[in-house]
Amino acid sequence: MAKTNPFSFLQQVRSETAKVTWPTRRETVISTIMVFVMVAFAATFFFIADQVLGYVVGLIMSV
After folding, report:
1. Over the stretch 16-54, which tens digit does the pLDDT of each residue have?
2. Dihedral of the CA atoms 27, 37, 35, 38 (nearest 10)?
3. Which of 9, 27, 52, 60 could form a disulfide with 23 if both were Cys (CB 3.0 to 4.6 A apart)?
4. Cα separation, 29 vs 16, whole angstroms
């Protein structure tokens, strides 16, 4: 494996980052909002599932 000096490495990194298609600000905001909405749905679902399972287990244990 060929070794490169730090200056050459930084040049390579810069050229690779220039090839990246970065998201626009709008795309980033929309994606962030979507993540928060999905987290809220998941939290609500697991809270309800936990409450239902806790209730069912409580019924079974009281028998």
Report:
1. 999 999 999 999 999 999 999 999 999 999 999 999 999
2. -130
3. 27
4. 25
Tell me which residue has tokens 């998201």: 23
Residues 6+ apart with CB under 8 A from 12: 4
Cα(13)–Cα(52) distance, rounded to whole angstroms? 52
Q: What angle do CA 57, 40, 52 make, to 5 degrees?
A: 15
Amino acid at 14: R
Cα 26 from Cα 34, distance rounded (Å): 12
Do you know the residue count of the chain? 63
